[in-house]
Amino acid sequence: MRVLSADEATALAWCAGEDGLPGEVDVGLVDPVAAGDVVLVHAGVALTRLDAREAVLA
After folding, report:
1. Domain ranges in the chain?
2. pLDDT (tens digit, 0 to 9) for every residue of the chain, 58 residues total?
3. Exposed, middle or buried, 3 (CB in 10 Å: 0-12/13-18/19+)?
4. 54: which DSSP letter?
5. Could you give the angle at the alpha carbon of 29 between the alpha carbons of 27 and 36, nearest 5°?
């Protein structure tokens, strides 16, 4: 999912998936994230941040 905005204080980010649907994601495990970052998400929790090459392959 691509990060649209992030709140470091709460470790939550507003992200959009490939389908364009937005959702709130807990980014505490990969904090800090910024708008434009791509994260791998499972059950609403970001597990890792993907680099540009990985994001294209995902």
Report:
1. 2-57
2. 999 999 999 999 999 998 999 999 999 999 799 999 999 999 999 999 998 888 887 6
3. buried
4. H
5. 40
Map tokens 């941040």 to a residue: 49
Enumerate the β-bridge partners of residue 14: 5, 24
Task: Using DSSP, state whether 57 is helix, strand or coil.
Answer: helix
Taking each continuous run of H as one helix and of E as one strand, the counts in the chain are: 1, 5
CATH class for the domain made up of 2-57: mainly beta
Indicate yes or no: pTM above 0.90.
no
Q: What is d(CA 46, CA 19) in angstroms, rounded to the nearest whole number?
A: 17
Q: Any idea which residue has 């649907």 for tokens? A: 21
